[in-house]
Design goal:
Helix 7 packs antiparallel against helix 8, helix 9 packs parallel to helix 10 and helix 10 runs antiparallel to helix 13. The protein is an alpha+beta fold and 439 residues long. The relative contact order is 0.06. The longest helix has 36 residues. The protein contains 14 helices and 12 strands. Helix content is 54%, strand content 17%. Strands 2-1-5-4-3 form a 5-stranded antiparallel β-sheet, sandwiched between helices. A 5-stranded mixed β-sheet has the order 7-9-10-12-11, with helices on one face.
């Protein structure tokens, strides 16, 4: 630790200097000229060091202090010590700010730091993407001048931040953003913006699912209840009416049973843990059985159904789930293709993949419906689906089966020209199949 400058020593040295000069000047008979010269020399010495200090502080780029004399060197060393300490603190502060910004950039939410007057101090990259802010161009700009939505303006003015605000993104109207304002320090605020589009979509899907299940079950139950209410032991219908009622009730019961079975299948697939795939699933044999079943289903539709199956093309997977995926795609093609249509079912090798596809020359599907076909209970035409007995769950089952097999359903369709549904799976090598047979 350096000692402080001693006033006694400094004044002692000055007194000794002037006393010595005065003594010599008195002996020479030049007392006052000698004292004047000593004072000028002392003043020059101090000004020289003062200019050295000024040059070091304002013009020199190096941190090392200049070489001074006497007490000035102690002053230079003190300033140098303070500069080094301040530089170290600045370095630590910059590292802290860098870590804060890196952490804010890593967050899944948009972050905007605001002053008490709503001017922007800083924002992360996600805020630029979701809200359309620009950094650093928008620094010191008021946030309510950049987000011009009236609801956001009211939210800022009222300062009631207990509940978040949900608005469409000013950059993309398809995105739904949640704005949440938090107190940050004494006179600052932290605006957190979160993309809740998927959450809102899932919430809507859940609501639609409950509504659709209720509707699908209520319709056949209403039919059954209606017939049962007019039947009792004392008022039995005649044979003709009973035959019609029996046929309708049986159809509605089968419809409810099919709906419940498909719901259970979908639930089982979603809830099942990942299982070990079976090796060497004989897909050609499976498709041969489905071809026979399709002919029975096609009895009233009179489609021309052609199966093109490559012999010996087997895959690994979950046998019953793959059969369900194949069956749903073939059944949908038969049900929704107008009578007398053409349906092509193929199972062929393409490079290292086994590709399954079902194509038809039916009415096709408009582009706005294609991306929603795999949603539960989603139907392009409600009336046609109800007439064919569809439950709206077939493609949802296919989607989840393929997800468990690391595959994806590809849909290509054009109105009035037909549709094609396909997916691919890794094909097993011939050598591997022989090893499985040998075991």
């Amino acid at each position: 630790m350096r000692l402080l400058l001693s006033k006694r020593k400094i004044f002692g040295k000055i007194f000794l200097l002037f006393f010595t000069v005065a003594l010599i000047g008195w002996l020479l008979g030049l007392l006052f000229p000698a004292l004047l010269v000593a004072a000028l020399l002392l003043l020059s010495w101090n000004y020289r060091h003062l200019f050295m200090l000024d040059k070091w502080l304002w013009r020199d780029k190096k941190l090392t202090p200049p070489a001074g004399d006497g007490s000035w060197q102690q002053v230079f060393d003190g300033i140098y010590y303070r500069l080094r300490k301040a530089r170290k603190k600045n370095k630590e502060l910059r590292a802290l700010i860098r870590r804060f910004r890196d952490g804010a950039e890593a967050l899944p939410d948009a972050i905007v730091v605001l002053n008490s007057d709503w001017t922007i101090i800083w924002c992360n990259k996600l805020a630029q993407q979701l809200v359309g802010l620009r950094w650093p161009q928008d620094e010191r700009q008021r946030i309510d001048n950049l987000i011009r939505n009236p609801e956001f303006q009211t939210y800022i003015q009222q300062k009631q931040f207990e509940q978040p605000l949900e608005l469409s993104s000013p950059v993309n109207e398809d995105l739904i953003l949640e704005y949440r304002m938090l107190q940050y320090g004494d006179d600052q605020h932290l605006l957190i913006v979160r993309d809740v589009t998927q959450l809102k979509l899932l919430e809507q899907v859940r609501k639609d699912f409950v509504a659709n299940v209720s509707h699908e079950l209520r319709t056949p139950l209403t039919v059954l209840q209606g017939y049962l209410e007019v039947m009792d032991a004392d008022n039995l219908p005649n044979a003709g009416i009973w035959l019609k009622a029996h046929t309708v009730m049986l159809e509605q019961t089968k419809r409810m049973d099919a709906l419940v079975q498909q719901l259970l299948t979908l639930s089982r697939i979603e809830a099942a843990a990942k299982v070990q795939f079976e090796d060497g699933i004989d897909v050609p044999a499976m498709l041969a059985m489905l071809e026979q079943e399709s002919q029975t289903l096609n009895r009233d539709k009179h489609h021309q159904i052609v199966f093109s199956v490559e012999p010996g093309l087997v895959v690994s997977g979950i046998r019953e789930e793959l059969r369900s995926a194949f069956s749903n795609l073939i059944t949908n093609a038969i049900k929704y293709t107008p009578n007398g249509g053409e349906i092509q079912v193929s199972w062929v090798r393409q490079h290292q993949k086994a590709v399954f596809s079902v194509s038809d020359n039916g009415e096709g599907i408009a582009p706005q419906h294609v991306k929603r076909l795999t949603e539960r209970f989603y139907r392009v035409d409600q009336a046609r689906a109800r007439a064919t007995g569809g439950t709206g769950l077939g493609l949802a089952i296919v989607k989840h089966v393929l997800q468990r097999h690391n595959s994806k359903l590809m849909i290509f369709s054009e109105p009035k020209k037909g549709s094609s549904f396909s997916f691919s799976l890794p094909a097993e090598q011939q050598s591997k199949r022989k090893a499985v047979k040998a075991r």
